[in-house]
Write a structure and sequence with these properties.
227 residues, binds NADP nicotinamide-adenine-dinucleotide phosphate, alpha/beta, globular
């Protein structure tokens, strides 16, 4: 069976992908910060799946989560670095230094840390795909989201440069998921988020697309079809 790692699987896009991967007969290792949601996922989707509380911005949490993954499954086939936050709508000068540090820690250092822990085992095996969730706001900018844009532009560079390091032995791909009605979108778009597809519709398109990614896609800036 194939193994997918999904960070940030307690809500939104991460949560919506779980049943789609299970339908495709994949085993899942997922994480998020919300303990109650993680306990519910463990109850709903017991072993062989693995769900663990992990804040991707804390090195010791990532160490513990990735050790559990490698011990239980060995190197994963697909890693979806999906967990992220967005700043409240405001110009940069109204975002505190602490809020700015927090978004950098989660959105950039989180995926970097997951890659640092998992890529060596994946490279040793010589296959696998690492998808780092970017955004339309990782490729063009907008007012009121400068700190989020900074992190998603960073994800594009981090992914493309790491792809040059792996040389395609493991594909590393910056992925724009599209625009989807989730908690995150509602925090920036307000009520108009309801005009966009919901996470279940999106997962129906996204999961088959993720499953067919491979070495040929290494370093490509990609967007989920229909996104
Ligand atoms: N929705 C869109 O239209 C859209 C557009 C472009 C890009 N994206 C990107 O797509 C990804 C998913 O977005 P979404 O809309 O599903 O967001 P969401 O609804 O806010 O869900 C975010 C998920 O990430 C988890 N998370 C947040 N901080 C975390 C941390 N420090 N450690 C571990 N997990 C953490 C949250 O769970 P806990 O609270 O339990 O930790 C939650 O499960 C993000 O990378 C986002 O930037 C989304």
């Amino acid at each position: 069976m194939k193994i997918v790692v999904i960070t940030g699987c307690t809500r939104g896009l991460g949560r919506a992908m779980i049943p789609r991967f299970i339908d495709a007969e994949w085993q899942i290792a997922g994480c998020g910060r919300n303990e109650a949601q993680i306990a519910e996922l463990c109850r709903q989707f017991p072993s062989p799946h693995l769900f663990q509380t992990c804040d991707v911005s804390y090195e010791k949490d990532v160490t513990s989560f990735c050790t559990a993954i490698l011990d239980k499954f060995g190197p994963p086939d697909l890693v979806l670095n999906n967990a992220a936050i967005i700043n409240p709508n405001a110009p940069l000068w109204e975002i505190s230094a602490e809020e700015f540090s927090r978004i950098i820690d989660i959105n950039i250092k989180g995926p970097a840390s997951m890659m640092r822990h998992l890529l060596p085992a994946m490279l040793k095996r010589g296959s696998g795909v690492m998808v780092n969730f970017s955004s339309g706001w990782g490729r063009c900018t907008a007012a009121d989201v400068a700190s989020y844009c900074a992190t998603k532009y960073a994800i594009e560079g981090l992914s493309m440069a790491t792809a040059q390091d792996t040389g395609g032995k493991v594909a590393v791909i910056p992925m724009n998921p599209g625009i989807i009605d989730t908690d995150m979108l509602r925090s920036t778009f307000g009520g108009s988020a309801g005009g966009f597809p919901d996470a279940d519709d999106w997962a129906q398109r996204a999961v088959p697309f993720f499953i067919q990614l491979g070495s040929k896609d290494n370093g490509q800036q990609m967007t989920v079809p229909g996104g």
